[in-house]
Amino acid sequence: MTTPMAPAADQQHLIHPKYRPDIDGLRAVAVLSVLGFHAFPQWVKGGFIGVDIFFVISGFLISTIIFASLEGKGFSYGEFYARRIKRIFPALWLVMGATFAFGWYTLLPGEWQQLGKHVAAGAGFVSNFAFWGEAGYFDNAAETKPLLHLWSLAIEEQFYIFWPLLLGLAWTRKWRVLAVVGGVVAASFLLNVGTIHSHRTAAFYSPLSRFWELMAGGMLAYMRLHKPHMLVKHRNVQAIAGFVLLALGLVLLRSSKAFPGWWALLPVLGTFYCISAGPQAWLNRHVLGSKPLVWVGLISYPLYLWHWPLLAFARIFEGKTPSDAVRAAAMVAAIVLAWLTWRFVERYTRQTTRRPVMVGLAASLVAFVLLGLLAFTGHLKGRHSDPYFDKTAAAARDWSYPDGLDYRSVYGELVYRLGEEGRRKVLMFGDSHIEQYSPRALELSKTAPDRLQDIYFATWGSCPPIPNVIDGQNSICAKRRDEIMKFALSNEVDTVVFGACWNCVFITAPVSPGVPNEGADRFYYVDGKTEHRFFGGDGVDYALRMLEFTMKNLATHKKVYLVLDNPVGDNFGPEYLIKGSRLGNLRVDRMSPTAAWPPEQKALHQRMRELAERAGATVIDPVPALCDKNDQCTRAMPDGTPIYKDSGHLRSDWTRRSASYLDAALTEPKK
């Protein structure tokens, strides 16, 4: 994600490649793909491959400089790294400074501490390792980490340390450079495809499994210098092949696929072919070399840096995914800020030869490391410093599914698995109200490993495990559920545990005065060609009868459980304790230990208990662990620590310690 390279008067040894506008155009394709994916993932589903395009471009340009310099006056490590400081640090300093200052003013204590950690990691170019350690489904939504995107910059900088040393060694020892490079590329690629299924997060963030993408650009640089005849025979064909591969990547790839893995070959080879075609290929000259794309390519580095913090802060302020209009405005602002950064910061620092500027840039990154560590350790507090913010923020982040679970493909659908030695196979089937119990299963794997069953989690948010129920806002729910239902009916499963946010799905009365239950309004039951709405119709009755029929059918030849719902509603969510504006006065209310169990939820609870008993299913009831005889239900510990993550989900820490009511379904009985 570096800016274009051009000769500078203070560089005596480094030889720079001739400027190619088509490469700036390729940068534009990369950065626009990333922006499209981050801002509008529903439209640009494969846009994350823009990072891989950047990797190949960077590897090509850096390697061209190194190879040409080694064959010329010699390669100077000092000049090389000084040039990296001038190119990388100015825009990075500006974006990190703005993010850090705005974070101090607006973020809650837990968010502020996390930002401090990310600032220190970003300034030290180890962000990929920081995010690798945090990776998880609800570890604090990725969309709320303003410096998440610096992971790719960290990998590039780590490459810039390793790559010149390897090439310098190969050159000094007179090794066959292409063979050395090819061998390392092969090793890195094999590590990538070998770990993508077993250690997916590592394969994504580890430099060892990503270096092959930058080194592919390095191989191309060597071939252009020493074997150009292999690259220029069919320029237009190569350019077309490159465009096709990149287009396939944008269209076919999804974040749910095992990426990078083999799929990364699409953007890597596509970029390889586009660059190798040269600036004279028709597509490169007239499309990539067009003025609009070249202009975007020139500002691509600061544009990449600015876009994500703007989106992340919008997500933090909204408390949910911002509207299309807000995201579009953020992208316009990113373009403006990127141009200003390029025009008034980058152009000056690229041209300056003043040593104090270089020293100041290097010192600024060291300062950011120190400031970030002070914020992370609590020695530098943000503006919102009430310690009770920490309790509510920690509760909101306390969701660990699917951490600790392995994933498998079952009937073409992704499921998660724990344990392989259990005598019986247990299918946990439902939505996030089943997911919330994965920490309890993991706890049992440590405290009772000899009794743990072989457990599968087949879950999707807001997707109740009832045939013929359709979610109007989730078009793929029915297909996924129906495939897993085949798995539940098969001889591969011994026990099926049904669970969902039944209160969200079935209660059609207002949750708050005058506010309809938007959850129930989404669902309807399909009987032949007739749609029975849940809200304002008889769909709930149809759905409950189908759930009873399904469990009764399964109970004839396997064990069936029904997990009843925990109380839900605004009174249980810690997010509702925070009042005011992040930009103004913000306060946090204290949570009392209990809240009333809504009567309509209690009525549904009893109805589903009776339904399960008629079907021959065993009831798993969380209410005795949460509520007293007066229907007052726990929402916080005596010290005010919430036990809910939000208004509907129990937090992982609580289910890990206290959801023992689930144990009978997950373990063998004690002997």
What does this structure look like?
With 671 residues, the chain is of the alpha/beta class. It is built from 27 helices and 14 strands. A hairpin with a 2-residue loop joins strand 7 and strand 8 (530-533). Helix 2 packs parallel to helix 6. The protein is globular. The model is unreliable at 2-12, 136-140 and 509-517 (pLDDT under 50).
Secondary structure elements and pairings:
Layout: H1 21-39, H2 50-71, H3 77-106, H4 109-123, H5 127-134, H6 150-172, H7 177-195, H8 200-205, H9 211-226, H10 235-252, H11 265-276, H12 282-288, H13 291-298, H14 300-318, H15 324-351, H16 355-376, H17 388-397, E1 406-410, E2 413-418, E3 425-430, H18 432-435, H19 438-447, E4 454-459, E5 469-471, H20 477-489, E6 495-499, H21 502-506, H22 518-522, E7 523-527, E8 530-533, H23 539-555, E9 559-563, E10 578-580, E11 586-588, E12 594-596, H24 599-615, E13 618-620, H25 623-626, E14 632-634, H26 652-658, H27 663-666
Parallel strand pairs: 3-4, 3-6, 6-9, 9-13
Antiparallel strand pairs: 1-2, 2-4, 5-7, 7-8, 10-11, 12-14
Helix pairs in contact: 1-2, 1-12, 1-13, 1-14, 2-6, 2-9, 2-11, 3-4, 3-14, 3-15, 3-16, 4-5, 4-16, 5-6, 7-9, 9-11, 10-11, 14-15, 19-26, 23-24
Helical percent range? Answer: 40-55%
Query: Radius of gyration in whole Å, from Cα?
Result: 28 Å
Oligomer category: single chain
Average pLDDT value? 89
Q: Spans with pLDDT under 50 lasting ≥5 residues?
A: 2-12, 136-140, 509-517
**Beta-strand proportion:** 5-15%
The structure class reads: alpha/beta
What structural keywords apply?
671 residues, alpha/beta, three-stranded antiparallel β-sheet, 27 helices, 14 strands, globular, disordered N terminus
